[in-house]
Specification:
It is a single chain. The chain is of the alpha+beta class and 168 residues long. The protein is built from seven helices and four strands. The chain folds into two domains: 60 residues, no CATH class; 86 residues, Glutaredoxin (3-Layer(aba) Sandwich). Helix 1 runs antiparallel to helix 2 and helix 3 crosses helix 4. The longest helix has 16 residues. Bound molecules: FE2/S2 (inorganic) cluster (FES).
């Protein structure tokens, strides 16, 4: 029976299958398998989870349960920069929704929160314990405090520059 792998790269699927085949006990190694899959595909979309379920003889619901349980697995395509805008109460009353809107608009994010250039994911988060410097924005591990909507372009520019420098 043909597995539903529409849109997934065949060479990467083959590589994943070869990796899975190296394990006698696939169930015991499911975390390693999922890590490997995420490393080569960049994320774990539902069709890939189904593929892994079939090759490991595990229920797809089990695979999905693992993927959604651990924060290091992503079902959505991720950009290089994870932008978290705090919408916790303290930040919200200081205007963090406006900041969120500015990021979404400036980066033209899709419904999954991925920017048009594929570099950024924009998400909302709840209090990160830095209310005193709110509104707070976190980009990967860097925290920005007292952020205003007009700072958003500069934050984006800084990280785009960082990505460019890493490429060159
Ligand atoms: S509410 Fe945003 S850091 Fe606490």
């Amino acid at each position: 029976m043909k597995l539903k792998t529409i849109g997934l790269d065949n060479a990467l699927l083959k590589s994943l299958k070869d990796y899975i085949d190296t394990f006698e006990n696939k169930e015991n190694n499911i975390i390693s398998i999922l890590h490997y899959a995420q490393d080569i595909f960049g994320y774990l979309p539902p069709e890939l989870q189904v593929y892994i379920a079939r090759l490991t003889n595990l229920p797809a619901s089990r695979i999905n349960g693992i993927v959604t349980f651990y924060s290091f697995f992503n079902e959505r395509k991720m950009g290089k920069f994870k932008v978290d805008v705090c919408l916790g109460t303290a930040c919200f009353v200081k205007g963090s929704q406006e900041i969120m809107d500015a990021f979404r608009q400036e980066l033209k994010v899709d419904l999954d929160g991925l920017s048009e250039d594929g570099l950024f994911n924009v998400n909302s988060i709840r209090c990160v314990g830095a209310c005193g410097i709110g509104p707070v924005v976190r980009v990967n591990n860097k925290i920005y405090g007292h952020v205003k909507a007009e700072d958003v372009k500069e934050i984006i520019k800084t990280h785009r520059q960082e990505a460019k420098e890493e490429e060159s």
